[in-house]
Amino acid sequence: MMDSQSAKIPTIVQRERRIGWLLLAPALLLLTLVFAYPILRAIGQSLFTQNLGTELQPQFSGLANYARMAVDSRFWQSLSNSAGFTIVSVAIELILGMGIALLLNQSFCGRGIVRTIAILPWALPTALIALAWTWIFNDQFGIVNDLLMRMGIMRQEMNWLGDPTLAMVALIVADVWKTTPFISILLLAGLQSIPGDLYEAHAIDGASPWQSFWAITLPLLMPQILIAALFRFAQAFGIFDLVTVMTGGGPGGATEMVSLYVYATIMRYLDFGYGSALVVVTFLILVIAVTVITVLVQRLRRNLA
Amino acid sequence: MKHFQSPTRRRFLSWAALGLGWVTQACQPSPRSTPKKTSTGEIELTVMIGAQEIPTWKPVIEQWEAQQSQIRINIIEGPTATNLVEDLYTSAFLLGESPYDLIFMDIVWVPKFAAAGWLLDLSDRLSEADLTDFLKADVAGGRYEGGLYRLPARTDAGMLFYRKDLLAAAGYQPPETTLELLKIAQDLQVQKKVRWGYLWQGRQYEGLPAMFVEVLAGYGGFWINPETQDVGLDRPEALNALRFLAETIAAGIAPSGVTTYQEEETRRMFQNGDALFLRNWPYVWPLANAADSPVRGNIAIKPMVHAPGFASAGCLGGWGWGIAKSTRHPEAAWQAVQHLCSSLAQKQIALSYGYLPTRRSLYQDTEILQKYPFFPSMLTVLESAVLRPPIAQYAQASDILQRYLSAALSKRMSPDQALKSAANETRRLLGKKT
Description:
Largest sheet of chain B: 4 strands, mixed
Number of strands of chain B: 12
Strand content of chain A: under 5%
Largest sheet of chain A: 2 strands, antiparallel
Distance between the termini of chain A: 61 Å
Oligomer: heterodimer
Structural class of chain B: alpha/beta
Structural class of chain A: mainly alpha
CATH architecture of chain A: Orthogonal Bundle
CATH class of chain A: Mainly Alpha
Number of domains of chain B: 2
Low-confidence stretches of chain B: 1-36
Helix content of chain A: over 70%
Number of domains of chain A: 1
Strand content of chain B: 5-15%
Mean pLDDT of chain A: 90
């Protein structure tokens, strides 16, 4: 009798643990509802054929959607478009963002105003910016062609958005312009948390600023770089608005991103099963890519340190 | 054996319970907002219209509401972009329990919405005699597999705009065939009378196949036959049509950037006086003839050019009214549709906005002719209008054609190869052997 009762009275540790779970419960519930449910739902839906051919009724079809994807050249092309766009634009943004952050970290007259102006592109709505860039790259009225021709770099107008490679370049330029401020602000915050005496000590030891950058700034800034890279990676991979407005995926599908293809499949073709399979595979590829980046950056950081 | 429970913990639990209650409640569907019958016995019908269309329809609807006391129409303001309005309707129907009784529909939505089972079939409510006044192609655009799902309220068709002052000065008649168009354009460009010869829409988007079906029909070809599901894209006629478009770029008649233009870019260049010919929709007419337009009074329209021995064709666009299958008030909705497509309503809209009516009789209406003397010439374009294939998978078929046309026009593929691939992919889509 006594024994069984004492077993029922929770120990302090047990009680703490229970309260801990209870406190976590709302967050866990929210995470489940917001993340786990849609992902599981998409995985489930990807095993069914549900489109206009089945009158929008789900019919179990196993892995048929995945088999279809394997031979869907449009999917693979859009995937490589997204990957190319993401890698190039994020790399440029990181380098430029770092430069701008280092510059803004120096004290100079009017720094506050310059910092505010520097973040402006990030604050403007993408769809509007995209429209502006469409006109900037217009072959007849665009300022890019006008400038390049006045400077004598080109003799003839270039059809920026009408050429597969140039259209991708134009998209990357617009994206870099728009999102570099985001990276530089993140990195600037990181730079300001690095104590100045580290540099002083390093300089006394005879190090040049270039050496200090590699020995102090870069290793200590790694957490911010990683966060910025991951954020931008996920955003760039899901880019939609900029591409929709500037090229619509053209010419000839040369700039169609995965997000545009998924949107078309689900919202315009009403092909839910296949659309879900596209989402699942893209999701898995993203998770793998993010893991690889994280591991690589951690290793780089250890090497630098 | 006192069960220990501190006051703080009890308070926390009650908060947690409250929170959970809120979360679960938030997850439940909100109670249906269907006290649609208001207390006075009126029926309220709901429709979503793109924001820019509301000024057009509001006066018509308000006048109708003033004439009778049973039916009210509640307009929900939608986005201005057509594809976004389509997406919103799509989501509403997919989630079931759609709030919309009436649907203001673009012509290309009809097959998809009908195939998905979202629309009410109107064919039992109308006799052939009721339909005789409507333009044939516009009615056909509302049909899907024997049913009629949309009554046309206004129409639209691609047409050729040209600078009559420049043609007259050079002593040319407006061109009938594609060859004449190329020749005249080149001649006037060589004489430095005009910068560009011919502008059309070449970007990868819905406007590209819309423009292409006109050229295609003008060469005697077809895209998809909705009855037999035959695909005509790899036939010689389609290749000739595509070659004509490519030729305009290669010969410098159209700027190379034409492959990135939508309607607005081409309209601006034409209105600026930079082009001799323009393929576009009727909306250009009032804008290019506005008081501040440099080409005001110097432009004219005619049906599209075609290959020698064939006839002109304009791509049919336009809007109309349909009824949601899920509506609880089909009779009231039908009355509304009849009124909104009536001669009275169409005349009112034509007079105040210049939109083209779908009823033939209005093209002889003296009041309309007085205001728009060019309407009868539009009628010839409209009667030769071609439909984009009315099939359920239209969106996919359009995307396939867009991609390959764009690939050929931007020289990623040869025209021949692009059209073969487009035809094969379209056949696969339709479940036909390639």
